[in-house]
Amino acid sequence: MPHQQTRQALILLNGYPSTGKTTSAQRLFFQFTPRWRVSLLTTLSVRLSLGEMKDLRDESRRAIVYDHLATLTEEKIRRGDELIILDGNFASRERRQAIYELGSRYEL
User: Contact at 8 Å (CB) between 66 and 29?
Assistant: First the structure.
């Protein structure tokens, strides 16, 4: 029997604050976790892990957070996670573009 390759998907939840992104991300995570290897990456969790909770409006600190989120996303893709959910506002096209390029590079 031929080896079946695992399919992967990347979901990017973006938009204005207080629009339900985090609630939707958590629901997706809990719905699919029992069957698949799922990762939920949030800008909040990245900020906390990097100690970047001060001055949330500082663009250079925001860039660090989104760059790190992209790095973590690529790690999860390479690890073989079947579903990677990203939760953040991704307000600028540039921030989303890094994720779009990852999806394209890995054909997700």
Answer: no
